[in-house]
Design brief:
By secondary structure, this protein is of the alpha+beta class. It is built from ten helices and 13 strands. The two termini are about 40 Å apart.
């Protein structure tokens, strides 16, 4: 939509705004429905064509999809259904369904038939004022027997009573939809002894169109900081509208107005988190991360160890 001009551009962004207001379980009235029908015909139909024209639903997994995007595509008439599982669970545990009553955006849906899910408190993750995280544990005919020739590793991923430990923390929404909150293995402790879930912060902040990738830092540190890879198409568009030089990524990131936009963003999204979890300092990176360059896994999750090594000097500077 960034290369559109004039009326087409206005129409595109009008449709996006309309789609963002879509709600699955609510009739939003004849006026809204009429506008959505127009947006579907003039703008969203192009999306469906780009997907082959026959697509009824898209099932997504591997990394969290932003509720904003799932909402938008569903409004556009392409139902996005998020699911969840692991290689060890062959691979699906839960999924949202086509029927509206069995679907909730922002969750990974209902357990599939034959699979049982329970949430078990992990006591050591409780800190003063913060309740313990609950691990998602699963049972079912799809769960592996164990890792080949690795008894020790196998013992570690099963509970005494035979449930598979996913390593993910979660909660129930409306008592039936599973929502993944963070990855227990990735929790870190600040030097003040507070647990922080980097994934929860990253997923929330990445809802901002300005932010492409992000890694939250703070293990054994006094406060939480972040490395942010901006979405350069959005930054460039912003610079053009503001009449700023766009000749290189470094130059775009050096503009005071760009920096101010990011400051405001960080402030806005920090409001969703407790004071100890909030991002106090951040750095914008001019190079984009990818699985090829090594900072992301194939499913686009940050490789924390590599990022910490690669940007050690930059990180140290934030804590000086």
């Amino acid at each position: 939509g960034m290369e559109l001009t004039g009326f087409k551009r206005k129409l595109f962004f009008w449709s996006l705004e309309l789609g963002a207001k879509f709600e699955l379980h609510k009739n939003q009235g004849p006026m809204y429905n009429a506008k959505l029908a127009i947006a579907r015909k003039l703008v969203f139909s192009k999306w469906r064509e780009a997907l082959g024209g026959e697509v009824h639903a898209i099932v997504t997994g591997a990394a969290a999809i932003q509720p904003r995007l799932a909402t938008l595509f569903t409004a556009a008439g392409v139902d996005v259904l998020e699911g969840y599982g692991l290689t060890e669970t062959a691979p699906v545990l839960c999924c949202n369904r086509m029927e509206l009553e069995n679907r909730e955006i922002g969750t990974v849906g209902l357990p599939i038939p034959g699979v049982d899910i329970r949430l078990k408190e992990i006591p050591e993750t409780a800190t003063d004022g913060q309740p313990a995280k609950k691990e998602i544990q699963a049972k079912g005919p799809n769960i592996m027997l164990g890792y080949y020739n690795k008894e020790e590793a196998t013992r570690e991923v099963f509970t005494e009573d035979g449930w598979f430990r996913t390593g993910d923390a979660g909660e129930w929404v409306d008592g039936r939809f599973l929502k993944i909150t963070d990855r227990i293995k990735e929790l870190f402790k600040t030097s003040g002894g507070k647990y922080v879930a980097p994934q929860a912060l990253e997923n929330k902040f990445k809802e901002a169109s300005f932010i492409e990738q992000m890694a939250v830092i703070g293990n054994d540190r006094r406060f939480v900081s972040a490395l942010i890879v901006p979405s350069f198409t959005v930054v460039e568009d912003f610079c053009r509208q503001e009449g700023l030089d766009t000749s290189s990524k470094d130059i775009m990131l050096s503009h005071a107005r760009v920096r101010k936009a990011f400051d405001e963003l960080v402030e806005t999204y920090n409001a969703h988190f407790a004071h100890v979890e909030q991002i106090k300092k951040y750095e914008l990176l001019a190079e984009e991360w990818s699985p090829e360059s090594g900072e992301l896994t194939p499913t686009l999750k940050p490789k924390r160890r590599i990022i910490n090594e690669r940007y050690a000097d930059l990180i140290e500077a934030m804590y000086q």
